[in-house]
Amino acid sequence: MRVFWTSLVAVVAGIACIGATEGAKIPVAPGMLTIAPIQVPIVDGGHVQGLLTVKLVLDSDGGDGAAVTAAEPRIRSALLSATGEFARLRASPYIPVDATRLSAEVSAAARRELPAVKRVLITEVSARPA
Fold first, then answer.
1. What is the pLDDT of residue 21?
2. Which residues pair with 58 in a beta bridge?
3. Which of 7, 55, 56, 84 is 20 to 30 A removed from 126 (C-alpha atoms)?
4. What is the arithmetic mean of pLDDT over 21-30?
5. 76 three-class SS
């Protein structure tokens, strides 16, 4: 049991470290904000099987862009958590990623943090073996 918890802590720490990569926040259009790439491990049976990489763009109502920018750290945290959960439950490095479902899950997570977010667009997604 101790090995299980140690492995779980290592995986969670890995998610936090991998997802903490910084990138430029490039405004694409009014009401849109590019999020730095998110990378999370694909874990199956307590072993890291691969890596899920996602590039996202927030699409919000054209209102206050400053509110979206101010909430970006909270939104990114929610996106990281939702992507990690998706990778744990529904991703494999050997089959195509269900981008429609991933988009729905990360959109719901972003809306919980900031209701002004209409949706989260996926501009690139890949799952590759470790």
1. 46
2. 33, 120
3. 7
4. 56
5. helix
